[in-house]
Amino acid sequence: MTRSDLVIIGAGPAGMAAARTAADQGLSVTLLDEQARPGGQIYRDVDHVPESRAARLGAEYTEGRRLTRALAQDRITHLAGAVVWAIEEGGVVSYTRHGAAAQVTGAHVLLATGALERPMPVPGWTLPGVMTAGAGQILLKQSGVAARRAVLVGAGPLLYLVAVQMVRAGSPPLALIETQTTADTARALRHAGGALRGWPYLRKGMSLLAELRRAGVPRHKGARDIVIEGAARAEAVRFKLAGKARRVACETVYLHHGVVPNTQAARSLGVPHRWDAAQHCFAPVVDRWGATERTTVHVAGDGAGIGGARAAEIGGRLAALDIAMRLGALSKGQRDALAQPLFRQLDAERAIRPFLDAAYPPNAAALLPEDDTIICRCEEVRAGDIRRYAALGCLGPNQAKAFGRAGMGPCQGRYCGLAVTALLAEATGQTPDETGYLRIRPPLKPVTLGELAAMHDEAKDPRLDNLDH
Ligand SMILES: Cc1cc2nc3c(=O)[nH]c(=O)nc-3n(C[C@H](O)[C@@H](O)[C@H](O)COP(=O)(O)OP(=O)(O)OC[C@H]3O[C@@H](n4cnc5c(N)ncnc54)[C@H](O)[C@@H]3O)c2cc1C
Predict the structure, then answer these.
(1) Hey, how many other C-beta atoms are within 10 angstroms of the C-beta on 185?
(2) Is beta strand 281-284 parallel, antiparallel or unpaired with respect to 219-220?
């Protein structure tokens, strides 16, 4: 089994920056990521993309090459295409790569697994032709494909970015159907001070909106009662604006109402999590270095709380400095001196967050969907099923899983977990913290028996023989 001082899971801005910072302090680093190339969500495929497509995706995208190039350091081993499915005591990390399972051990483990798009379960969201805006963006980044006759629905800055990227790719969306209201904007203005400190982001947002205006993309704000119509596939989006019924015919629907930390790995290690009321999601409990109560496990980047790519990069560097100190490569004084300017930058990066969180809250109707709406796509569990389990006395998500398999499919609750918590909390009158979340156990991602059988015998763990997927 390979051994490293530090094993990092996730080669996005947080993981890449942490890898280089730790290696520069003399640590040996193994960086694992399921993607074929480094970059994470924001810089996906940045080293591979043709220049014409890179220009359309914008300068903030190609900026990621600074981080991917910095991985060329002797002490960093980057294992691309490595899907991590278990992290256990003693820093043993199990993953699948090239069709075979393998393991690597780290004296310390850094989780930099990023964010997931918050699923937006509205009637019709499971029809073919409907996907998340992030999935649409992945098609654009990796293959240069932009959907035709698409409508973007939801709230948040990523929606504007994707819409502009589609305009530049020659396939502008037919419309943006946005759920935030003028009351949300008024609430956000209470955080105007922070927004002004984050003026580069405001300026970027305004320039994206100006580009959409110039391209003639209509924006419908304050949309309610959103329904995706279609028999065999999505054909139109129906919604209400100030009580009036509207309908936009289309072929593709991109849904988006924010991103949430990808907490599966941290949860599988028993790291405590807390409900973040401003961001409407759970986040792991970490200190300002990303350290958890598990002394050999840190979390950095969006996985520790949504802050964006720059904040993720800085968070990765801070975690690496703290880990280097814990492993004896830096004194406390050296760590603090190197970290001081990073903390200042992090404060500046985070200043705009309260404004954005208030201006673009997730669509309330999709947080507590109607009874008929499917919330767990893997097992086809509907919102009404969860409410029925609550009426039968079910108090928490783990019981709901036993009642009706919500969260038991291949995604292991990554997509329905928050909806199950919200529905049970609503039904029982408890807080999300009291209701809790699914207990996450390995395998975090599906692993086949063939992949386990192909694992080198020395590394094979007998407990794995009992896994059923
Ligand atoms: C779909 C999507 C698109 C986004 N697009 C943009 C954008 O265009 N612009 C922008 O400013 N922000 C974007 N964001 C927000 C964004 O993710 C950033 O804030 C930033 O990338 C966070 O950096 P990170 O290093 O924390 O995580 P990420 O960049 O998300 O990197 C996490 C990495 O961990 C890997 N990973 C996760 N689980 C495992 C596992 N079990 N095994 C192996 N590898 C694993 C993932 O493959 C990923 O490469 C997007 C978010 C999402 C979800």
Answers:
(1) 14
(2) unpaired
Q: Quick one: tokens of 39?
A: 């970059």
Query: From atom 41 of ligand 1, which residue's Cα is the shortest distance away?
Result: 84
Q: Count Cβ atoms within 10 A of the Cβ of residue 81 and give its class: 0-12 exposed, 13-18 middle, 19 or more buried.
A: middle
Q: pLDDT tens across 170-212, in order?
A: 999 999 999 999 999 999 999 988 888 888 999 999 999 999 9
What is the per-residue pLDDT for 456? 67
Helix intervals (H) in 40-102: 51-57, 59-62, 65-69
**299 Cα: distance to centroid of ligand 1 (angstroms):** 14
Query: Pick from 72, 79, 83, 98: which is nearest to 4 by CA?
Result: 79
Closest CA to ligand 1's atom 12 = 42
Question: CA 415 to CA 411: how far, in whole Å?
Answer: 7
Going by alpha carbons, the residue nearest to atom 37 of ligand 1 is 113
Could you tell me the distance, in angstroms and rounded to a whole number, from the CA of residue 42 to the centre of ligand 1? 6
Task: Find out whether 339 and 347 touch, Cβ atoms under 8 Å.
Answer: no
Give the pLDDT score at 51: 84
Give me 319's structure tokens.
């975690």
- Give residues (CB < 6 A) around ligand 1: 9-15, 32-35, 40-42, 83-84, 112-117, 134, 137, 158, 161, 259, 262, 301-303, 308-309, 312, 444-445
Distance CA 64, CA 60 (A): 7
Tens-place pLDDT, residues 293-319: 999 999 999 999 999 999 999 999 999
